[in-house]
Amino acid sequence: MIIAPQLEIAVLVLGIAILLLEAFATKIDKRVFAFAAIAGLMVVLFATFFVTPTSSSDQATGFWSFYTADRLSIFFKQFALATTILVLIMMIDYAPVVQSSFPGRTPQAGLGEFFAVPIFTCAGLMYLVSAIDFIFIFVSLELVTISFYVLVSFTRRNPATLEAGVKYLVLSALSTGFFVYGITWLFGATGDTNLQRITVALTSPSIERGPALFGIVLVFVALGFKIAAVPFQIWVPDVYQGAPTPVTAYLSVGSKAAGFVVLLRVLQPFMMLSQIQRLLGLVALLTLIYGNLAALPQSNLKRLLAYSSIAHAGYLLIGVVCFDGRAVAFYLVAYLLMTLLSFAVLVIMAQQTGEEISDFDGLAKRSPFLAFAMLIGMISLAGVPFTAGFLGKFFIFYAAILQRQIALVVVGVITVGCGFYYYLKVVRAMYWQPAANTNKIPISGLSHLAITALILATIWLGVYPQPILDALKR
Amino acid sequence: MVLFVIFCPIIAAILIMAGAPARKTALIASILTLAATVSLLASLRGDQGDFQHVTSFTISPEWHLSFATGLDGLSLVMVFLAAIVTLAAVWFTGEIDRYENAFYACLLFISGGAIGAFASIDLFFFYAFHELALIPTFLLIGIWGSGNRIAAAWKITIYLAIGSFILLLGLILLFQSVPAASRSFDIRALKAAAGLGQISAEAQHHIYLLLLIGFGILISLFPFHTWAPEAYASAPAPAAMLHAGVLKKFGLYGLLRLAVPLLPEGARYWANLLVLLLLGNIIYVGLVTIAQKRLDWMLGYSSVMHMGYVFLGVASASVLGAIGAVVLIFAHGLSIALLFAIAGELRKRTDTLVFSELGGLGKVMPFAGLTFGLGAFAAIGLPGFANFAGEIMIFFGAFRNGWEMERFHTLQIATVLGLWGVVISAVYMLRAYRKVFMGALPERFHGLKRLIDLRSSLRLPITLLIAALLCYGFFPQSLVRMIIPTFRSTYFSANKSR
């Protein structure tokens, strides 16, 4: 019998083991560690299916009263593990770029840490989705963020990466400040840091609502940084563009998903306050408009995906406004599949030609497989039926219409139209434009497998979403 | 059998993408699809208004979502149209200079999507199948189009994407407007709920408007029509045939299948708006069509204009008008496909479709001239072609509409004005015919080797289209008999409930 907290401990042990081995084994090919990490995480992923979730989210199961293992958290632990595995596969493809950014030293320098740090991020994400106490949320959020500090600026000889690293560091630190300040206000108002007890405390008439509300708004500001909601999105385009591509993928999926799970948990006690709902609705509206409009003129694919990640945060926020956890979770799964699919192709292409959209010209001739994969990724992001992305939007819009959020629905539909334009720009480049050169593009076996799996999963979930819906059932 | 008809083109498209010989596979698939459709036609029991050959797989019990397909007379007519036009379009696709496999795969995806939408009983798949055609259309226009293809491809894609998301909102609202216990995406269940009066009048107003705009954008209802002429002018001929002939009819099918029967109150509420817009289609777009200087643009606008008649049939909310609308959908799909096919062949030979640069082609291409003339006659609505049968039923139905108001109502005024549309279409069609096929052959075409009549292999699909037009022009009853049960149950129950 496996109990939930063992999963994180296993992941942490795996990370430490790989880090230690890496320090002593100087002779062997460092990619072995990536394969070991993937294998280890797969074992943990397999093990998560044997954990029985607790029935309610209030029930703490470990680490004093900080930790819960309800269905939602188990589901997102699997989500974090799957993301990390796919990111590690991308990192193997990306290894030559990392090596080339450490000139003059041993050819393998830096690679070991590059493969080991994401494991710690993964552990952080897994703790985060289980956290039901502000203190624990804060600690695990920091574990995630600090490991991202390292990852974002990993290829530090590249000025753009360095800039991204600094921006991410400064703004994340700022958002952490907001977070802590918010927690103190909440603690001061309610006398507690446990979410469940805060909920109870808020219902009693003797509590002053004002300070609590102020506290939660500060917390929301901090989480707004993580999920890239307007007006806290300024760091996103530069950081996404400058960071190593697999790290960008990890940021846009892992960090965002964690942010949304925390947001759903943290807001639970406050959703009955209509001010919060209105505030969230406004942020969602701004995020949708900004993300989609700013994505229109982009010519760099990585930057385009950065803006698209802001846009998708907007759709996800619609789900949060309607407080439909399942719609948000399903959207996140769809987002995971399609975003990682696009990034997986981008990682391969970026080493061949570049990251501009024009570098994809004529890809259909050079590599029909990669072009098709990118096509599926893009149309799923745009929201074409029979792909997971469409069903994600479907559930979100369903929830919004049910709650009669007219403004959000109207803006949502118009921005979907924008989305079709900028996602299909990539399709246009791949299929319409003639290729500059006609060399075939080599793909490693593991990437081939991962991309095929992502394509199939994207279409499978677009046609038959029931397994995910079942997994999310309360 | 129904599943075979839906998935035959889709599987063929996947095979072609995987490397099967493109043209052969596509031809075999479309012939098989047509054959299966004909056998379905033969086995349809005409006395029932219900769906037949129903197969259903549950996708999500909690959302009452299932993959359910089946056919009644109305949907079978649409599938039949799709099968005929698909065969003609595939046949008409000659040599493709690049990505030949992708071209055929795109065509078959459009066809499979349209057939799937027509044969779906479940609203979710009804919607999703239609969207399956969106990306292939984008690629077809973008890769193989001509003229201002880039702008045209964006325009059609974004228009249709927004239109279908508005439609999606309408469908979700429809789903939610039914009491929770009987919520379902199944058209039959929704119809039952509507029959019991479970959809409140106020909800009907909202939903009908959303459906009207959503479907309207897909059908190129005035003033949302501007994507259509440009896209059809730029698209390669087979794509224009399939899109104008079949895919655009999805919206009309949706109005006849969902909007009017399920939301009679909403239909009545917005009837005047619809009448106003459809007059925009007939009169305004008709005049715009006359002003066109290029054959492809003129055909594009004419297809927009003829949608006005079908809308009149929809707006009439009478059995006769609705049946006329279906017959006209069928006939217009065939005739516009025929005209686009010949226009595409002309473009290959002359490199231009500007009226002032053409002329006298009837002498060098007698077969093309004859068949284009027949297609033009059909489009005008001359007796003997199926278009005439459809239009006359629509006009009669609209003039004496199902709501049986005693005074001279807006629909009658609209009918009177709409009849002028026949004159307008005679003007532009005959003018086009004169400018392209009559008169003297321009200097620069003298001795041009490419300027030969259609090859005999291309004459077959054209003959197929004309034969169908004439056949159902003289015997429209065979179509009407199939459609009647669908509408009789609908409108009689709707009228009785008041």
Main β sheet profile of chain A: 2 strands, antiparallel
Q: How far is it from the N-terminal to the C-terminal residue of chain B, by CA?
A: 39 Å
- Residue-averaged pLDDT of chain A: 87
Strand order, main sheet of chain A: write it out: 1-2
Q: How would you sum up the global shape of chain B?
A: globular
Specify the structural class of chain A: mainly alpha
Q: Largest interface, per-chain counts?
A: A-B, 31 and 31 residues
User: What multimeric state do the chains show?
Assistant: heterodimer
**Using DSSP, what is the number of strands of chain A?**
2
Report Rg of chain B: 21 Å
Count of discrete alpha- or pi-helical segments spanning 4 or more residues of chain B: 22
Proportion in β-strands of chain B? under 5%
Q: How do the strands line up in the largest sheet of chain B?
A: 1-2
Throw out a few tags for this protein.
A: 474 residues; two-stranded antiparallel sheet; 19 helices; B: 498 residues; mainly alpha; disordered C terminus
Provide a descriptive summary of the structure in words.
The complex is a heterodimer of chains A (474) and B (498). Chain A is mostly helical. Chain A has helices at residues 4-24, 31-48, 71-100, 111-130, 134-152, 159-190, 195-203, 209-227, 235-242, 245-267, 274-295, 301-321, 325-352, 363-366, 368-382, 388-402, 406-431, 445-463, 466-471; strands at residues 60-62, 67-68. The mean pLDDT of chain A is 87. The longest helix of chain A is centred in the middle third of the chain and has 32 residues, at 159-190. Chain A has a two-stranded antiparallel ribbon with strand order 1-2. With 498 residues, chain B is mainly alpha-helical. Chain B has 22 helices and two strands. In chain B, strands 1-2 form a two-stranded antiparallel sheet. In chain B, α2 runs antiparallel to α3 (73-92), α10 packs antiparallel against α11 (237-247) and α18 (366-380) packs antiparallel against α20. Chains A and B meet through α15, α16 and α17 of A and α5, α6 and α7 of B.
